[in-house]
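Dock nicotinamide-adenine-dinucleotide; give full complex structure.
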Amino acid sequence: IQWEKQVRNSAQIHRSGGMSVLVTGAAGFVGTHVSIALKKRGDGVVGLDNLNNYYDPSLKKARKSLLNSRGILVIEGDLNDAKLLAKLFDVVAFTHVMHLAAQAGVRYAMENPNSYVHSNIAGLVTLLETCKSANPQPAIVWASSSSVYGLNEKVPFSEADLTDQPASLYAATKKAGEEITHTYNHIYGLSITGLRFFTVYGPWGRPDMAYFSFTKNILQGKPITIYRGKNRADLARDFTYIDDIVKGCLGSLDTSGKSTGSGGKKRGPAPYRILNLGNTSPVKVPELVNILERHLKVKAKRNIVDMPGNGDVPFTHANISSAQREFGYKPTTDLQTGLKKFVRWYLSYYGYNNRKAVQ
Ligand code: NAD
């Protein structure tokens, strides 16, 4: 009873026309920011996260405490726990699901391939099964990834481009997720929006990502490894600042339309969309390092090696005209400004001498 009361309180809507959103992966990087933004504008938010130890669990716990301090409950549980999901939908008639829980990272797939299947495929299906049976059915917005474009060399990447050359198992599970969600849209009338995020960075970010681990190593005086691609070409990424991604997530939720089924039965055609959320301005990785050096006021020790072919793609570049058309998506933070904010957060969280940093 106490649990139900907490869930209901957290899901409470405080604006007219607001939504109640189940945010999966709420203790993750993107989930934390999206949950806070939703709560701030008066929407109800309940988080779900298994707080796994893919990276520093203490960082996830700190994000969870931050969310708690904003009145957002984060339930510790796994996407594959169908009973828990059903119980949540019994307590709250969620209007929307923001599905961000996943096994992220392209290289870890070489070490633990099954964790990708567990979270990105089996977990996704368990969530969709719950949503399909819910009454009313929630609209679903979920995170796919720019990695689905794989080794495609036509830039910028548009949603209709081929996604037939995944470079990692991670990319393959995201691509599978697009097909799986499309099927649930056809059969059960679930409203689905898949967002292809392009290298998201910012405060409370992910320690496994290059900008984050570079910062840590530069401060500790350790070398950083910079990959280069074919013919010694620099790798480039369409780095997208977290606040721009949050705007894209909220814009998607606001325009996601209604699911048209209930209790597992379809009543009519429901919307299905795939949208790029990027910055449309790729930056070469060595330039990222230059910017970090300037903000940190420390020189990096560069170790430049050929890309080992374990999941990375040579470059990414988003065409964002679809999201622009759908809800006026327009990224506004350049890498220089965004990294400044990241570095400020990093130094305040870990301290200049990096004592708290994970190994
Ligand atoms: P993250 O790892 O920080 O967040 C994901 C969260 O999901 C984690 O807190 C993790 O504990 C949780 N989780 C994982 N498996 C779970 C499961 N089975 N049950 C419950 N919780 C589980 O990652 P992020 O950077 O915040 O990414 C959010 C989403 O966006 C992910 O789907 C990711 O694949 C996608 N994405 C991210 C980026 C990026 O650059 N950050 C780029 C493209 C796509």
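Observed: The domain at 2-198+242-278+317-331 is CATH 3.40.50.720 (Rossmann fold).
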